[in-house]
Amino acid sequence: MDTIAFIGGGNMAECLIGGLLTSGHKPSLIHVSEPDESRRNFLSKEYGISCVESNIKLAEKADLLLFAVKPQLLKQIAEPLTQAVQVRQPLVLSIAAGVRTTDLEHWLGGTLAVVRVMPNTPAMVRAGASGLYANHLVNSQQKNLAESIMRSVGLTVWLENEKQMDIVTALSGSGPAYIFRIIEAMEDAATRAGLARETSRLLAIETTLGAARLAMESDDSPAQLRQKVTSPGGTTEQGLKQLEEGNIEQLFQNAINAAIDRSRQIGDELGADT
């Protein structure tokens, strides 16, 4: 098995560590560098892994170096690792939103295999959806390694080009917030209509979960599933009519486009001084 080193021990790193261990990866081959001592102690005790303060020590022995830090901090964290990374030549994997592979590779001295990943928060309950993009130096074995890590917390898809990462960011990266907002709106509407708030929330959440599971497991498209539950002259038809009159499709198109534009702006801002 490969030695996997996490730079940063936050929530997403912890999620991936848990997924790896559940998938059979040995704790002795998972290492974390984390500046917060209490966080290091927690991760070490909870998962039986090695946690250190020094990023360089990990970079010197990693087969895969995974950056799980805030995008705004990535450059200043990556640049001091250049010498160690150039000697070791690990696969570099980044889950820092917005940071492009060319920028990260440049900060680390160039000529490195880099995989960029856009995960989402449902990964914390092993129900994530991650888009991955590999630069031209990533070989098939390294792609399998990167995929196995992200697959331990959910579904994975490979992208043909890095520009598509902005779309993935807008769809699955930001998407959970859209769904939470829909659940919130359904809960509020049912509560105002007369249900207890706890009952409204439970039904809204379970309905969303059940519909998503049905869409995943059915051979029918979402449009076909919608049609099957919509009886002519029935309650569902009347409810959907209101959504259509409110131009729900255009609202979501606007939301996705706005998020795509912001994702591109963030990439330009973070890479402007490379």
- Give the CATH topology of the largest domain: Rossmann fold
* Structural domain tally: 2
- Provide the gyration radius in Å: 21 Å
User: CATH H-level name of the largest domain... which superfamily?
Assistant: NAD(P)-binding Rossmann-like Domain
Annotation, overall tally of beta strands: 8
Shape: elongated
CATH architecture designation of the largest domain: 3-Layer(aba) Sandwich
Overall structural class, as computed from helix and strand content, comes to alpha/beta
- Name the average pLDDT: 96
* Overall CATH class of the largest domain: Alpha Beta
The helical percent reads: 55-70%
Largest sheet: 8 strands, mixed
How does this model look, in words?
By secondary structure, the protein is of the alpha/beta class. The protein has two domains: 4-165, 3-Layer(aba) Sandwich (Rossmann fold); 175-264, Orthogonal Bundle (ProC C-terminal domain-like fold). Helix content is 55%, strand content 13%. It contains 13 helices and eight strands. Strands 3-2-1-4-5-6-7-8 form an eight-stranded mixed beta sheet, sandwiched between helices. Helix 1 links the parallel strand 1 (4-7) and strand 2 (30-33). Helix 8 (164-173) packs across helix 13 (248-271) and helix 9 packs across helix 10. The two termini are 34 Å apart. The mean pLDDT is 96.
